[in-house]
Amino acid sequence: PKLTNVQATETETLAECIRMKLLFENWREYIDEVERHPDIATTQDEIQKSLDYFYQEHAPSKGKRREMGDWKGHKMVAFDLPKGTILFFAVDEQDRAKAYVGVDRFRDSYSVGNVRKTKGGGFYTTDLYKWLTDQFGTLYSDVKQTTAGESIWRRLQQDPEVNVEEPSEETGGRWRLSK
Question: 44, 64, 92, 111: which has the highest count of C-beta atoms within 10 A?
Answer without folding.
Answer: 111
